[in-house]
Each structure stands twice: as C-alpha cells, then as structure tokens.
Automatic annotation (TrEMBL):
Species lineage: Bacteria, Bacillati, Actinomycetota, Actinomycetes, Kitasatosporales
Entries under PANTHER family matching the protein: TYPE-4 URACIL-DNA GLYCOSYLASE, TYPE-5 URACIL-DNA GLYCOSYLASE
InterPro entries reported for this sequence: UDG_Type-4/5, Ura-DNA_glyco_family4, Uracil-DNA_glycosylase-like, Uracil-DNA_glycosylase-like_sf
Pfam families: UDG
Region (Disordered): 1-23
Biased composition (Basic and acidic residues): 1-15
Source species of the chain: Streptomyces antimicrobicus
Name listed for the protein in its UniProt record: Type-4 uracil-DNA glycosylase
C-alpha cells in the first residue's frame, strides 16, 4: 500500500553464535578472572537492555553453593545476586535452618535479567530498552536456549568453588544442573549426586527446593516458607 510504513527490522545477529557464552570464558584464571570476563559476555541477547552481568559472589572456597534462576530488577541495578526481596527472605530462611548466607557462594543459572515492561513500555530485555528509568520491569522466565547458553559460566563456578553441596533454588536452577526434564516436585528435598556438566566432573551432592520468590508470590506464604526452611535444614545436616 502506498505510503505504508515499512516494518521495523530487528537487530541482525547470528542465531547459533548469539546463544553460547563459551567463547567469552577466559582460558585460565580463578573467579576474579571469570567475573571480569563475564562483564563483557554477549553469549545471548539478554545482555541488551540490562545494566550488566550479575556474576556470582561469596566465599571462593565455600562448602555450600546456592544457585538461583536469574538476577531480578534490584540485582541487575546493583550488580549483585540475591540482594532484593527474595534474597532477604532466603537469608532469613537459611539462618533459621542453621546456615549463614555469608559463608556460601551465591549465583544464578542465568547472569542477565530477563524482563518485560507493562503495556506502553518496551517489551522484553534484548530490545535495547534502557535499564534505568521507565516503568517497572517485570521478571520473565528464561527459556532453555538462554539457560543452555549461560551454563558455561555456572559450570566454571562449580569447578572453581568445588562445593560439597549445591542447593538449586527453583526449576530453572534444577534444569541447569540436571537437564530439561527436571521437576522440583519430584526431586525436592532429596540429596542426590551432582552430574557432570559439559564434560566437567562435579563432586559433592545437590539438593533442590523452591525459589524464595515463590514464597513471596504465594497466598499461603507461611506454609511455603516453612517448607523452604525444612529443605534447607536437610542441607545443613548434610554439611554437618
């Protein structure tokens, strides 16, 4: 039709190349080197429209590693994992279970914040929307392709920290460790061996539980919270 506006073109990217963080990992070095390299990761489109990479943090020789899904809005703005409401609830639950979050290594399966904006705002992270102002950004679950692309960072953290126990918080973290068929309801609260990831043998055990954000969203928060605490008590006993 004459005078019709041509459709906007999406930014060009090579699909296969754009969904693999592997090429961005350093050839050598510890957590500090990996954290520095991760700041420049372009392994999937989620880096666009975010403040930056949110790498893991905590004791580099921790016996306990906590793995969540992805950074949230506050984590993205501050560049640290689990510093928002879910992080506060997790810290409280760990303390009740006899664990100290400051003695753990804390990270996420996906290192960039995936989000949507309410109607009238830019749609999804990856659309070059500014991370700062504008309407509130709402969490959107990463898909399996994004999860697989980011797994080399998680594998490197697991190898370098070499924890005795890994607690997977929620389904996404569980899938990052045990594959796409993982279901929290089937594995929750059970101590199981850690699998090899991408050819990297892992030591120690794993335990899956719900993500603390699920407690915040629930109508019966107290029941879910107590269930989370009980799962973390199982983790505490395993470390004892």
């Amino acid at each position: 039709m004459a005078g019709a506006r041509p459709p906007e073109r999406a930014p060009e990217r090579a699909p296969e190349q754009a969904y693999d963080a592997g090429p961005f990992l350093p050839a050598r070095g510890g957590l500090a080197a990996h954290r520095k390299a991760a700041a420049g990761c372009r392994g999937c489109p989620l880096y666009e429209g975010t403040t930056g990479t949110v790498f893991g943090a905590g004791d580099a020789s921790a016996r306990l590693m906590l793995v969540g899904e992805q950074p949230g809005d506050q984590e993205d703005r501050r560049g640290e994992p689990f510093v928002g409401p879910a992080g506060g609830l997790l810290r409280r639950a760990l303390a009740e279970a006899g664990l100290d979050m400051d003695e753990a290594y804390v990270t996420n399966a996906v290192k960039h914040f995936k989000y949507v904006r309410p109607a009238g705002a830019s749609a999804v992270s990856g659309s070059a929307a500014p991370a700062g102002g504008g309407k509130r950004r709402i969490h959107k679950q990463p898909n399996l392709r994004e999860l697989s692309a980011c797994r080399p960072w998680l594998t490197a953290e697991l190898r370098l920290v070499d924890p005795e126990l890994v607690v997977a918080l929620g389904a996404t973290a569980g899938k990052a460790l045990w594959g796409s068929g993982f279901r929290v309801g089937e594995r929750r609260g059970l101590l199981v061996p850690l699998p090899d990831l991408d050819g990297t043998p892992l030591h120690g055990q794993g335990l899956a539980t719900i993500h603390p954000s699920a407690v915040l969203r629930a109508e019966d928060r107290e029941a879910l919270y107590q269930g989370l605490v009980e799962d973390l008590r199982t983790a505490a006993r395993a470390l004892t």
